[in-house]
# Entry
Amino acid sequence: MNLTEIQKFMKVAVRFSPNCFINHNFEMIVEPKNNIYFLLEDVDSELTLKCKVLAWLSRPSCKGVSEHWQKRIRAIINEYLGTEFTVDDMHEIYTYLGNDCNRKKTLRFIESDYDIDMLVEGKESRT
# Structure
């Protein structure tokens, strides 16, 4: 468990989503009203947390919630990761990495310093 990194993320998240909290199941509830959350139990490093942020916040950052919340979720992602993803970028990220569908590709994406072009190249298998 990497509590320091979780605290760092929480400080960012609460600025854009003041009702953000961690519940008794050790889930990060980013936005309660829209049920935006992810499990923290297996977060053992900064890299793991970044994977979770991309996997579970990419969808609400570009679809499924109001534009107001999409912007706030994108702001959380961008501030935490040090990126400037647009709504179009987030659609690509959700398509290729959302719901943790391809952890290996997510790791390569992070290691590439978030190179959007590498997401669509090769359309690798989802392993």
The mean pLDDT is 93. The first strand starts at residue 21 and ends at 22. The helical segments are 3-16, 46-57, 67-81, 87-97, 103-111, 116-120. Residues 78 and 85 are 6 Å apart (CA to CA).
